[in-house]
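User: Okay, second chain of the day. Same drill as before: sequence in, structure tokens out.
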Amino acid sequence: MGDKDNNTSFFGHLLILRTHLLRMLLYVAIGAIVAFVCDEVVYDYIIFAPRSEDFITYRFFCYLSSLVNQMGIEVDICWEPAQFVLQNREITGQFNSHVWVSIVAGIIVATPLIVWEVWRFISPALTEGERRSSRGVVAYVSGLFFMGVAFGYFIVVPLSLNFFAGYHVGGQMAVDNLIELSSYISSVVNISLSTGMMFQMPIAVYVLSRMGLVTSSFLKKYRRHAIVVILVISAILTPPDVASQVILAIPTYALYQVSIAIAQREERRREEEEKNTTL
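Assistant: Same drill. Structure tokens below.
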């Protein structure tokens, strides 16, 4: 009888998990369909926007450059996007990119609902105290993800495109950059999603701290090692120039410091619970 109950409970959890997964797929599908139908908006105003000199990042740096120059400091950080030609050499290339971009857009837009479904699945297994301390987790995870995607899209993507698309070798026999559509889209999507995931560091540390696998002293002890890892990851995600690496490394390191504070807060909470239990 006990085995039957256990089996029923196990399959019951599988059915519940399947329900949540189907809902996640539904949210992504709805977002993907909307993105697929609104392809002109998605491509002209989002995907291809970093190629335009009117892109908000370029205008911001030009404004910042003029502001600094007015203060008597000669700094020229006003830059324009590199000029290159996008091409498609596969008969299904544009259709495949249309589908892929729509799916990614659906995932990004549906992120809060996906996180909410994950939370609904795991929350029944938590204690009342754990649910209280985890209140707002959907907003935190979604907010950090959107912040990371925005940082990657508005900062890292323009820097990467400007460096790689404008890079030339040779002199009189210079090679023109005819960039594949799939390569361009992969760069924009991968950079944006990668920075979005990197901004989840405080959430990951919080979970590991709750499980007792990470402590603030451990994070402080290996702070220098973390800086090296952050710089390596930044070097992978950005063009091979110091400025781009530093631009990505600074907020990532700031998140590492926030993670240390989160781990310390969790340790203090655990100590207070142990004191109350002892009393």
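Confidence is low (pLDDT under 50) at residues 1-8.

User: Thanks, on to the next one.
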